[in-house]
Protein: Tight adherence protein C
Organism: Pseudomonas indica
Amino acid sequence: MDYLLGLINNAVGNEQAARLLFVGAIGLSALLAAVTLVMLIQGLQDPVQRRLSLLKRGHGELAHGEPPPSNLQLMLEQVGQRFSSAEEGKVSATRTLLTHAGYRSPSAPQVYWAVRLLLPLLLIGVAFLGLPLIPKLSLLVGVLLVGSAAAVGWLLPAIYVDKRKQARMGRLRAAFPDALDLMVVCVESGLALPQAMERVAEEMTVSQPELAEELALVNVEIRAGIPSTEALKHLADRTGLEDVQGLVSLLAQSIRFGTSVADTLRIYAEEFRDRRTQAAEEMAAKIGTKLVFPLIFCLWPSFFLVAIGPVIIGILRTFGKL
């Protein structure tokens, strides 16, 4: 307390005004914390409010075996509702990002923005608690530390979601050729496209569960009455892969004009296999350039130290005797 009071006194230049500001800040913080705690307790314990929250998030009736949302999840959804897109029927960039990362829940954008809002506040509080432990800390350095904590808290969820998105898209891209080969075999054996996708999803459930889930979802949408072309477009939107979008366009044209789906899948599988080979060759060609920096900063200093070090020591000993 004395440390924070000293910082405010150095900034204001008046001890009495600094004490008033300090007491006012503590009182306001305590009042806001108490009001927030009371509202959260009332909102989470009231069954009517909980039921209304479930209805707002689209969980009026929970699916069989689906666990009910926790109080923490409902609280995060309520906090993040102010930041999520309010336009109905329009997919926001946040929802697209979360869908590509594997979060398809209707409340995912609310939880995402709530975490991005609350995490900086939490890290700011931790920074304020840690400032007295740093000796001889100036006001400017303290402000920079608090600002850095807030920036880290704001950017960390976005970085995590982006990394998860890249990893998921990489796994889908790696599993896509095998799924194409299996679909070609299923279609040539006489199965229709939805049944072929269902069979491939069953076969890839263990090895590639994410792609199997996406294919099974396409089959569910087709059974629900959605046209095949629309269900395939939804698949391309959920995955975010250009390869899947190209396949969807080819399959849509094949279904529209009545051409052979098996021939379309076989041709695209060959093209995709060639494209994957070219991507691997491109990555292999970049290895030489990428190895330059580890060689310069890691290997060459050690080499020069071993090769030239004894010579330099001998020269210093020789001139030292003179």
